[in-house]
Amino acid sequence: MTDAPLVRRHTDLAVAVLTLDSPHNRNALSAALIAQLTEALDAADADPQVRAVLLTHTGSTFCAGADLKAGGIRSGPRLLVELITRIATLTKPVVARADGHVRAGGLGLLAACDIPLAGSAATFAFTEVRLGLAAAVASLPVLVRADPRAAARYLLTGEAFDTAEAVRIGLVTAHAEALDGILAGLRASSPQGLAATKEITTAQLRERIAATSAGLEQQSIALFESADAAEGIKAALERRDPPWAI
Known about the structure:
CATH superfamily: 2-enoyl-CoA Hydratase, Chain A, domain 1
Number of helices: 10
Strand order of the largest sheet: 1-2-3-5-7-10
Distance between the termini: 39 Å
Low-confidence stretches: none
Helix content: 40-55%
Radius of gyration: 17 Å
CATH architecture: Alpha-Beta Complex
CATH topology: 2-enoyl-CoA Hydratase, Chain A, domain 1
Structural class: alpha/beta
Number of strands: 10
Shape: globular
Order of helices and strands: EEHEEHEEHEEHHEHEHHHH
Strand content: 15-25%
Mean pLDDT: 95
């Protein structure tokens, strides 16, 4: 392994472009990736020349969720809560573009963004339930942003769905073709106006984080430490069905 950055950044006409660049593990939410992404978000928030953030990725996966091979079970849920909170409290809007697979905690990351977009190659699934887990922390933004009936279906079944369905249920704002127009609108907007408007639009998410994140974090840790999860994760890494699959 090299010390190459897991999150690359550059600025494009007042937009800080942050690229998840850890394709060897499908941009999984390792402690190192979360730390680098948080640092990049902080830098963008502090830069008066930056109007908005665009989060994108390399490889065929936007984010695969928790890094199941890296350990860190007890710290992972807390780190994801902190990342979702940082996106929600950033004074600048965060646009995301997913052009590949989005799984598990990656859906929490995507849903936390203010304007998530997805290309035709994107697919989505809350795979936790099939591993003996639950999308506990990821549900924080999902249950605020998406249609609750549709969210319940996909959280409970682990079914995969496409971009058209993600847009229909409100998990994704629009297809990726809308990106240029959205960025043009953000670039034309007042920094003060954007910050004040974001505070309004994220109020419900920030309230849910404050009220429920501690309990969801503890639930997630308990599930990760269970016998069912140990078997489910082992089966996933071995590319076989767990014993409860019929």
